Amino acid sequence: MLNLKKIEQIFEFIVWNFRIFTLIPVIFGLLSALNFFILGTLEVVYGMRLNLLFNYQFKSDEVIEVVSHIIGGIDYYLIGIVLLIFSFGVYEIFISKLDIRLKSEISHVLVTNSLEELKGKIIQVIIVALIVSLFKQVLTLEIEKSIDLVYVSGAILLIALSSYLMYAQSHLTEKKKDEDSQELKENQS
User: Fold this and answer.
1) Who contacts 69 (Cβ-Cβ below 8 Å, separation ≥6)?
2) pLDDT tens-digit series, residues 110-124
3) Domain, as residue range, for 155
4) Based on the domain organization, do 149 and 117 belong to the same domain?
5) Exposed / middle / buried, residue 112 (Cβ in 10 Å: 0-12, 13-18, 19+)
6) Nearest-CA neighbor of 63 among 75, 79, 40, 47?
7) What is the tens place of the pLDDT at every residue in 160-174?
8) Domain end position, chosen among 68, 94, 124
9) At what angle do helices 115-140 and 146-188 cross, to 10 degrees?
10) Is 21 helix (H, G, I), strand (E, B) or coil?
11) Which of 84, 78, 86, 81 is nearest to 136 (CA)?
12) What stretches pass through the bilayer (predicted)?
């Protein structure tokens, strides 16, 4: 019986420490985030060519190209932010809370207490990235038929609806957290 207990303890030790392998997606998520921040910066810099900045006679095609590059850069930044949130969240859920973050006064955007919360944050940023991507596509879209206008209008309507649902869901989550916190305080009294 004693031998079985020792085997169980060793197995539990191995299983518990297996979570260290989640450092692999954390490290590569951070490296990928850095990569997307660099790509976004290069895209914005490319869009801000000096010959357009000092030329006061803009051609509409040139302006659309500049705006398209800047929006493309924002899109890369948003993907980098998704990867950053993912990396912080996985680390805090599976490895350890970041002690340095607990001392900081910065926003609680990077605080993640569960996989469900991490998933919600990532989905919100992805929706914003999709909105930016759609905006970039609409800039260069040539409307030839009236159905094209209907498609663009439908896409904008779906974006508005998804934004509303995202806001409503986050508002309900915050309200539930406040209620749970209040209930916990009442139970402790």
Assistant:
1) 43, 44, 46, 47, 48
2) 677 788 888 887 888
3) 141-189
4) no
5) buried
6) 47
7) 888 888 788 777 777
8) 124
9) 160
10) helix
11) 78
12) 20-46, 66-94, 122-143, 149-167
